[in-house]
Amino acid sequence: MNFGEFADTAAEIEELSADTEIAERVTTLFEQADSDLLVLARFVQGRVFPAWSSRTLDIGPNYCYEAIARAAGTNVSADDVEEKLAEVGDIGEVAASYDFGGQQGLGAFGGGSGAGGDLTVAEVADELDALADAEGSGSQDKKIDILFGLFNRADGDEARYLARLVLSEMRIGVGEGTVRDATAQAFDVPVESVERALQVSNDYGEVARVARDEGEDGLDSMDLELGRPVQAMLAQAGTVGDALDDWDGAAVEIKYDGARVQIHHDPAGLDWAASDETGANDSEPRETAVFSRNMEDVTDALPEVVEHVEQHLNAPAILDGEVVATDDGNPLPFQEVLRRFRRKHDVERAREEVELDLFAFDCLHADGRDLLRTPLPERHERLEDVLDAGVSELQISDDPEEIADIETQALESGHEGIMLKNPDSDYSPGRRGKNWLKRKPDVETLDLVVTGAEWGEGRRASFLGTFLLSARADDAGDEFETLGKVATGITDEKLADLTDLLEPHVRTEDGQQVEIAPEVVFEVGYEEIQESPTYSSGYALRFPRFVSVRDDKTPESADSLERVERLADEQ
Fold first, then answer.
1. For the chain, what is the total number of helices (H) and then of strands (E)?
2. Predicted TM-score (pTM) of this structure
3. Which pLDDT belongs to residue 280?
4. Dihedral (C-alpha) 291, 295, 297, 298: value to the nearest 10 degrees?
5. How does DSSP classify residue 559?
6. What is the pLDDT of residues 94-106, one digit of tens each?
7. Residues 243, 244, 247, CA angle at the centre, nearest 5°?
8. Structural domain boundaries, residue 70
9. Residue 485: strand pairing partners
């Protein structure tokens, strides 16, 4: 296909506003693509390489401006291009405004015989591939020469979309969902099969080719490939209430303040046959590759992660996990991790300055078997089978108090909090759904007066362990209305302190039940305020959590029932 045909299609798509119309036009493009399908499925999204590849053109805007200026003629400079860009705001519009063609030079392949008409999609792909390969001394001049040669053969619309493609600014309204739907429509295959194939391959061009050449059976036979990263499954914000309302219990994990990694490992050596896509030119096959959340190859920057995996992972596998910066085992802030991820030189010195630990929490593939459609607990068991150190603990619970205790322990250990996951969920690469929840921090806290308590049981029998909370019912602070109990978010050590604090204010005891004079104020977090006949206020706190003792507040300055009512109305 001529590149001009692709440019015409891109121009048509850019004028459309309805998603269905855009998908129909992309469908037609795919039906007409022939041998260029794999490239066009990427180009139409503004990609040059597969979505999984960290390979880039590695050419900045200024070099693109220089190539445009050279193709436009001796009276145009890179500064002129940049000034025009400042006026119109679109590099494609700037490139389309020049009359290219006929300029001579090293990069004017094809003899510089005039612009437009003979430039093909395959030639553009090949030249951009060569541009990405250029490295070392003189590479920037070579890149500019290659771009000059392309622009020198481009007419207006061809130059418009070539410039946008090179600078990753296609902006014609075609996203991943559009390409998925167009692939299914163009080649009469189920969109579900296309979706699954995209999840395991993360290559829209290859999936389109397989859909056309091999149909539904070919798509369904596509699997994960060691050495080819896929998108990470994502979480959305949620609460313990959301999890326990929707699931049969929640799988609870520590939420680390680190950087997400995907680890690919094969003791026999990873298949780097696609090294022209990855940029990997190692003479010996690597056993381990580490990719960031954005699928950037960060293997060389994290040698201790590689060493850990090669020492403790006993089978070919793809793992999902978090890398955390630590100091004597204590977690450090996320910024310390970034220092390591961004390091390309003096890695060993950086390693001495910032220690990294791996916490793997999921297993996508193990010993020849894909596990994406395997329930979470089974995936975690498989993870423990293949990795004998550095596995994050997974606990399943339907008890909000137990979950709150896990969160408290995580926070006290210096971590961010907890993750809540549906135990029955698959692993869905790139999907942000309701099966993984980052527990939202409490939106509000209330300062409430302790008016009662209960003695604990078992190892907590000598502690007051559950505390009755009340809001001030009048301005004088003489009357209080109950609205819940709190027993979570409190360690044994803290329970001992609270017992010592409250025992002097005990009025009466009846078995385990204790009435306490309104003297002590707790700061309490919660997920929601609900109407409830259980307490005298008419309200109840859903999943309350102890935050602190408000030594600076008296019962008269605690929160009022009026504020509780207002917060309930604002939810």
1. 21, 20
2. 0.76
3. 44
4. -50
5. P
6. 999 998 875 555 4
7. 75
8. 47-166
9. 468
Distance CA(358)–CA(496), nearest Å, equals 35
Residues 448, 468: contact at Cβ < 8 Å? no
Q: What is the C-alpha end-to-end distance of the chain, expressed in Å?
A: 57
493-552 pLDDT, tens digit each: 889 999 999 999 999 999 999 999 999 999 998 888 999 999 999 999 988 889 889 988
**H/E run at residue 337:** helix 334-341
Distance CA 152, CA 74 (A): 13
| Domain-terminating residue out of 387, 422, 438 | 438
Q: With beta carbons less than 8 A apart as the criterion, state whether 438 and 234 touch.
A: no
Euclidean distance between CA atoms 468 and 484, whole angstroms: 6
Please name the residues in contact with 546: beta carbons below 8 A apart, sequence gap of 6 or more: 467, 486, 488, 489, 490, 494, 522, 524
Active site residue 440: no
Whether residue 362 is found in the same domain as residue 473: no
Residue type, 232: A
Residue 189: CB atoms within 10 Å: 23
Q: Cα separation of 523 and 514, whole Å?
A: 20
* Pair 308, 389 in one domain: yes
Rounded CA-CA distance 325/307 in Å is: 16
Considering its fold, how many domains does the chain have in total?
3
d(CA 280, CA 43): 23
Q: Which of 142, 255, 421, 485 is catalytic?
A: 255
β-pair partners for 323: 259, 358
* SS3 call for 86: helix
Angle at 394 between CA 390 and CA 395, to 5 degrees: 145
